[in-house]
Design brief:
single chain, mainly alpha, Serine Threonine Protein Phosphatase 5, Tetratricopeptide repeat, 2 domains, 7 helices, 79% helix
C-alpha cells in the first residue's frame, strides 16, 4: 500500500510541471526539489526532474534521473528514449543507440524511431571519418 504524498508535495509537483511546460527548467527544478526529497522512489518525480535537467543541458544529471526511473520501472519506454537523448547529446552514441533501440522495441513511436535513425546516421558518419 502506497501512502499518499502530502498536498504541498502534489502542489509543488504540479508547479514544476507547469514551469517546465513554460520552458523554465531551472525554476521547475527548484519547485521539484522538495518533492525529490520526500518522494525518492516515485518514477514520475525523477522523470520530471530528468526532463528539466535535459532541457537545461545538465546532461549527466538527466542521465542519472532517467536511469533512476528505469531502475524503478524498467518498462518505461519514455525514460529509455530520454536517456538515449541525454547520452546522444554527450556523444555516447553506442549507449544512446542501445536505449533508443529498447524504446523503439517497447513503443515504436515516430519520435523514437527518428532519434534512433539520427544516432545510427551519426555513428555511420563517425565510422567513415
Amino acid at each position: 500500500m502506497t501512502s499518499q504524498p502530502p498536498e504541498d508535495t502534489v502542489e509543488s509537483f504540479r508547479r514544476a510541471e507547469s514551469l517546465l511546460s513554460a520552458r523554465k527548467p531551472l525554476d521547475a527544478l527548484k519547485a521539484l526539489s522538495p518533492v525529490l526529497d520526500s518522494q525518492p522512489d516515485e518514477a514520475s518525480v525523477h522523470l520530471l526532474a530528468g526532463r528539466a535537467y535535459l532541457d537545461s543541458a545538465q546532461l549527466q544529471r538527466a542521465e542519472s534521473a532517467f536511469t533512476r526511473v528505469i531502475e524503478i520501472d524498467p518498462t518505461d519506454h519514455y525514460a529509455r528514449f530520454a536517456l538515449g537523448k541525454a547520452l546522444q547529446r554527450q556523444s555516447r552514441l553506442a549507449e544512446a543507440q542501445t536505449q533508443l533501440r529498447m524504446a523503439v522495441a517497447m513503443d515504436p513511436r515516430p519520435e523514437y524511431q527518428e532519434a534512433l535513425g539520427e544516432v545510427r546516421a551519426r555513428m555511420a558518419v563517425n565510422s567513415v571519418e
